[in-house]
Amino acid sequence: MSEEIVFFPNPASRARMVHWMLEETGAPYRIELLSFDKGENKKPAFLAVNPMGKLPAIVHRGTVITECGAIIRATSVCSRSVLHINASTSRATSCQHS
Ligand SMILES: N[C@@H](CCC(=O)N[C@@H](CS)C(=O)NCC(=O)O)C(=O)O
Questions:
Q1: Which residue from 93, 76, 98 is spatially nearest to 1, judged by alpha carbons?
Q2: Cβ 34 under 6 angstroms from ligand 1
Q3: Does the bond joining 51 to the residue before it have cis omega, within 30 degrees of 0?
Q4: Nearest residue (CA) to ligand 1, atom 9
Q5: How confident is the model over 38-92, as pLDDT tens digits?
Q6: With 70 as the cut, is the pLDDT of residue 27 above it?
Q7: Ligand 1 contacts CB of residue 54 (under 6 A)
Q8: CATH topology of domain 5-97
């Protein structure tokens, strides 16, 4: 399964926090930009990712994560760069081996 994170943002949203975090961590990711003007967050393709139709969302290894706080926490715990910094913590270690 791909290690790449699929990131669903809109630039005029709180998704910017997640975008910043992804850049900081160096995790591989691909952007699937959604337009609020075109209602793309309420179309079936995105509702299959997040039935609430809310951004941001990420998909990693087939798992969907929504909510800024949850996404930022997940990416910070599991990213390689943060693992490098926090390699002595058990949480980081368990993430490293999963
Ligand atoms: N509690 C969620 C809120 C998500 C949210 O409300 N996102 C807004 C953009 S900042 C959204 O998707 N709005 C579009 C809509 O509700 O149709 C989080 O922190 O991620």
A1: 98
A2: no
A3: no
A4: 13
A5: 999 999 999 999 999 999 999 998 999 999 999 988 888 766 544 443 444 445 4
A6: yes
A7: yes
A8: Glutaredoxin (3.40.30)
